[in-house]
Amino acid sequence: MADQLPITFQEFVKLPDLGIDPSNISFNTLTLQSDKFICIREKTGEREQVCIVDLDDTSKTFRRPITADSAIMNPENKIIALKAGRNLQVFNLEMKAKVKSCMMTEDVQFWRWISPFDIAMVTEKTVYHWSIEGTDSPTKQFERHANLNGTQIIGYTTNAKKNWMALIGISAPQGRIVGSMQLYNKDRGASQPIEAHAAEFSEIWLEGASQPTQVFAFASRGATSSKLHVVEIDHVDGNPPFQKRSVEMMFPPEAVNDFPVSMQAGPKYELVYMVTKFGFIHLYDLESGTCVFSNRISGDTIFVATKHQNGLLAVNRKGQVLSVCVNEETVVPYILQNTGNVELAFRMASRANLPGADQLYVQRFQQLMNQSQFNEAAKMAANSPRGMLRTEDTINQLKHLQSAPGQLSPILQYFAAILEKGELNRHESIELARPVLASNRKALLEKWLKEDKLECSEELGDIVQQHDATLALSVYLRANVPAKVVVCFAQSGQFDKIVLYCKKVGYTPDWVPLLMQVARADGEKACDFALSLVKEDPPLVTADQVVGVFTSQNLVQQTTRFLLEALKDNKESDAQLQTKLLEMNLLNAPQVADAILGNNMFTHFDRPYIAQLAEKAGLYQRALELYDNLDDIKRVAVHTEVVNGEWLVSYFGNLSVSDSLAVLRQMLDHNMAQNLQIVVQV
């Protein structure tokens, strides 16, 4: 029936299988600061060394010849802290370098890493924190309370802000293991002595809360009763108050001398795992104090434990490294079947997105809708496990309901509940975007996008595009819609980004229709875009294709600008385009054509054809420069009134004597009075 249990339990590794002598597996020689490393001080005869087990890959277990009274591994990195007498040193094992050291004035009775950068140290009278960064010496946190006198310190923990601290020791008066704890609040500088064997700080989300509630859980096995307590610390204004929980802990008759040795919180499930010396595991719901599960996981003494994947990792005296985590498939059905606590099953399924309560959720949702408790139904659907009620059907039911005066409508309650703790799915994002943009609250949409609260899609981008092209581009980029991204880049003139983007995502657009789309919107931007495309190696479009697009939109100026740049190398293969460039300008902008011809930029165009067009356009000098046929020259040369005389005289120097006489005769026959002087000059 192991597959029906609410936990998954496994043996991670057996330390003796890694060559570790069982005599070195004890509270005094083995330390477990996190689920990354186990550190064991080994002694064989006169030889002392430290063995470090890498729990991510036990084949990478290594040893170093180190002599120390205590060794603790950093919770994340290959950094080790060593204690020899009052001398404390921290080394980076990968860099083989000392990180920091200090000499204490008192003996350190207990120490542990409380973060990747901080070590807590407990002396006979004082608790210190020591940062391995910078040059500061250990900083005193508080004086030990008298209730810890004569105890063996076995634990120390802090909350995330490090303004609450709990120090735990045990003693054995009359043969009973008594737990003593000092709870210290840094803000008030006050301590509270409590009888407890294990403690843990965590947080839970209460119904209607805008922020998580910080809680402190501690467990004690007293002479007459054993209890788990959960209390709130650092109450947040506006949050609902948390009622203190005190629940009886059950120990089997055969475990008379058993007691809690460690508590580890699993924030995802809002559970606390308590492991006892005799190898029992207890799972409690932090909000209600309900015992979810209790069973034995080890027949040997467990002496150390730490957090592991929202669960717990523990080591027993045999050297078994054991892990306990919630079984997400079975925990909710187990609660329903074994505790009958429907509310707890609901909360567990909702808070951690777990299966097992789906049918109950559907029934309760419909019940709330039938009772016209629409806002409660909306919140319930929003928080349903795995989003099972977050469907188009639910949205359609809610969005047509009216709200009470002064209250959010049910559909907005629904969206607000989701946004408070998570992200909207595709359909929800679209449904919310429409009214938000319609009410001109675009800034809200921008905020949610930056916070990754919306699931971007092409449809959402299309809706946003009607209001803000830049914001739409952001949506298309997140939704990975390359065709729309490229269009947005082009329309905003960010042509340098288009090709880079396409290469990055492996997208090949149909460039010609895209260029046409831009040309219809903005000719100048289209020209810049076209130039960027033909300059790629190899070109992404041909100059012919660009001219075809531009001329279809009658973009004469843009075609001219494009061709002047694209044809500047004056290649013979571009003869047809040179002709096209001159043709369109002779027909539409003769002065531009005159300037182009005057600069002698091109030499491969159809000279007779362009000469004819130049003649028709009244550009007689350009026509004469291009004509080779004598009849054509005779016909054009007579227009001396619009041709520069000095140029014309020099022009005849390029003709043969016989051709010159023939042209001069034609000029006199056409208009002797007008042309006699220039003929004489020639």
From TrEMBL:
<dbReference type="InterPro" id="IPR011990">
    <property type="entry name" value="TPR-like_helical_dom_sf"/>
</dbReference>
<keyword id="KW-0472">Membrane</keyword>
<dbReference type="InterPro" id="IPR055358">
    <property type="entry name" value="CHCR"/>
</dbReference>
<dbReference type="Pfam" id="PF13838">
    <property type="entry name" value="Clathrin_H_link"/>
</dbReference>
<dbReference type="GO" id="GO:0006898">
    <property type="term" value="P:receptor-mediated endocytosis"/>
</dbReference>
<dbReference type="GO" id="GO:0030132">
    <property type="term" value="C:clathrin coat of coated pit"/>
</dbReference>
<dbReference type="GO" id="GO:0071439">
    <property type="term" value="C:clathrin complex"/>
</dbReference>
<dbReference type="InterPro" id="IPR015348">
    <property type="entry name" value="Clathrin_H-chain_linker_core"/>
</dbReference>
<keyword id="KW-0968">Cytoplasmic vesicle</keyword>
<dbReference type="InterPro" id="IPR016024">
    <property type="entry name" value="ARM-type_fold"/>
</dbReference>
<dbReference type="GO" id="GO:0030479">
    <property type="term" value="C:actin cortical patch"/>
</dbReference>
<keyword id="KW-0168">Coated pit</keyword>
<dbReference type="InterPro" id="IPR000547">
    <property type="entry name" value="Clathrin_H-chain/VPS_repeat"/>
</dbReference>
<dbReference type="Pfam" id="PF01394">
    <property type="entry name" value="Clathrin_propel"/>
</dbReference>
<dbReference type="GO" id="GO:0030130">
    <property type="term" value="C:clathrin coat of trans-Golgi network vesicle"/>
</dbReference>
<dbReference type="InterPro" id="IPR022365">
    <property type="entry name" value="Clathrin_H-chain_propeller_rpt"/>
</dbReference>
<dbReference type="Pfam" id="PF00637">
    <property type="entry name" value="Clathrin"/>
</dbReference>
<dbReference type="GO" id="GO:0005829">
    <property type="term" value="C:cytosol"/>
</dbReference>
<feature type="repeat" description="CHCR">
    <location>
        <begin position="534"/>
        <end position="680"/>
    </location>
</feature>
<protein>
    <submittedName>
        <fullName>Clathrin heavy chain</fullName>
    </submittedName>
</protein>
<comment type="similarity">
    <text>Belongs to the clathrin heavy chain family.</text>
</comment>
<dbReference type="GO" id="GO:0005198">
    <property type="term" value="F:structural molecule activity"/>
</dbReference>
<dbReference type="Pfam" id="PF09268">
    <property type="entry name" value="Clathrin-link"/>
</dbReference>
<dbReference type="InterPro" id="IPR016025">
    <property type="entry name" value="Clathrin_H-chain_N"/>
</dbReference>
<feature type="domain" description="Clathrin heavy chain linker core motif">
    <location>
        <begin position="328"/>
        <end position="351"/>
    </location>
</feature>
<dbReference type="GO" id="GO:0006886">
    <property type="term" value="P:intracellular protein transport"/>
</dbReference>
<dbReference type="GO" id="GO:0006895">
    <property type="term" value="P:Golgi to endosome transport"/>
</dbReference>
<dbReference type="GO" id="GO:0032051">
    <property type="term" value="F:clathrin light chain binding"/>
</dbReference>
<keyword id="KW-0677">Repeat</keyword>
